[in-house]
Amino acid sequence: MYSARREIRAGSEIFHLRGREETVASDRSYRVLRADARQASARSRDVRLTRLDVVRPGVCAEERRALLKTEARLHDTIPGLPRVLLRVDEASAFTFATAMPPGAELPELYGRPPYSRPALVAVLRGLPQVARTLEGFHAIGRAHRALRPEVLIASRDRLWLRDAGLAATAPAAGEGPAAYRAPEQELARAGPATDVHQLAAIVYHLVTGEAPCADPLPVARLRPEWAAALDEPLMAALHPVPGRRPDLRDLTHALSSATPD
Q1: From CA 242, how far away is CA 126, in angstroms rounded?
Q2: Where are the beta strands (DSSP E) in the chain?
Q3: Which portions of this protein are annotated as coiled-coil regions (predicted)?
Q4: What percent of the chain is predicted at pLDDT more than 70?
Q5: Could you give the dihedral angle defined by the CA atoms of residues 121, 123, 124 and 128, in that order, rounded to the nearest 10 degrees?
Q6: Fewest Cβ atoms nearer than 10 Å: which of 6, 20, 166, 212?
C-alpha cells in the first residue's frame, strides 16, 4: 500500500506526494495511485502524478497499463488539458506526470456550497473554457464522465479541467462521482450528454448547496435570486433522458451569461 509512502521514484525522478487517491484491482494484481506531488529535481515543479504498480504480472495489470497509456495520450491531444511532463514505463510500474494548472480546486478556493454571488459569477464565466476542453473529448467519441468540483481548477482569469477523468475507459455501471452521476451511468452507458448532466449537477450544487436528486427542486425554491437565469438551463441539462438535454455549448453559454436578480 502507499499509505506510509511519502515519495515515489520513477526512473531517475523523485516525487514528494501530497493528497492522494489509491485504487486496488479486485484480483490485487496492481495498484494505481493518483496524487498531487512535487517533482524533486532541478525543475522542482508541482505536478499531478499517476502511478501503476504491478503486484502480480498478468493480463489484468497489462490491460490497466494500456488504459493509463491511453489516458496519458489524451493529455497530449485534447486542447486545454494539462500536458504530460514525464512518462516512465518500467517492468513493474508505469508513471506519468502532468502539469498542474495554475490556481486552486474550487472547494479549496471557495469552500463548501452554496457559493456566494461573486464566486458563482466567477465560476459561471469560466465554464465555456471547460466546455471547449470537453468538446475535444466528444470530437473523438469520448467523454470525461467524472466531473466534480475537485477537477475544476480556478485561476484569476480562467477555469481549467485538471484531468481526463474516465475518458480512457469503457463505461461501467455505477461509475463516476455519486453526487453528480448521470442516470445513464447506472446502466454502463455514457456519451457527451453525460458531461452535460454532470456539469449542470455541479452548478446546481454550487448554487443551491444541495446535490441534485432524481427529481431536483427548482432553483427558485432554494436560491430565488438565481431562478430566472438558471432554472431553465439547469433543469433541461438535468433531464434523465440524455437526448433531451441541451448541447454542451448552448448550456455553458446560458450559464456563463447568467446573473442574479
Answers
A1: 24
A2: 7-10, 13-24, 30-39, 46-54, 84-90, 93-99, 104-105, 152-154, 159-161
A3: none
A4: 98
A5: 140
A6: 6
pTM of the model: 0.94
In this structure, the chain runs to a length of 261
In CATH terms, the fold of domain 104-256 is Transferase(Phosphotransferase); domain 1 (1.10.510)
Please state the CATH superfamily assignment of the domain spanning residues 7-99 in this structure. Answer: Phosphorylase Kinase; domain 1 (3.30.200.20)
What's the distance, Cα to Cα, between the start and end of the chain in Å? 51
Residue 229 — φ and ψ, nearest 5°? -85, -30
Find all residues with CB under 8 Å of 186, minimum gap 6, and list them.
Answer: 173, 174
User: Looking at residue 4, what is its pLDDT?
Assistant: 57
**CA–CA dist 217, 220 (Å, integer):** 8
Residue with cell 436560491: 223
Nearest to 166 by CA among 188, 153, 149: 188
For residue 81, how many other CB atoms are within 10 A of its CB? 23
Distance, CA of 149 to CA of 221 (rounded, Å): 23
Q: Which of 164, 184, 177 is nearest to 238 (CA)?
A: 184
Domain residue limits, the chain: 7-99, 104-256
Q: What single letter denotes the amino acid at residue 247?
A: D
The stretch 39-47 carries a mean pLDDT of 84
Mean pLDDT over 145-151 rounds to 98
E strand or H helix that includes residue 249: helix 248-256
Rounded Cα distance between 226 and 261, Å, is 6
Are residues 34 and 164 in contact, defined by beta-carbon separation less than 8 angstroms? no
Side-chain half-sphere of 191: how many Cα atoms within 13 Å?
Answer: 9
State the Cα–Cα distance between residues 33 and 25, nearest whole angstrom. 12
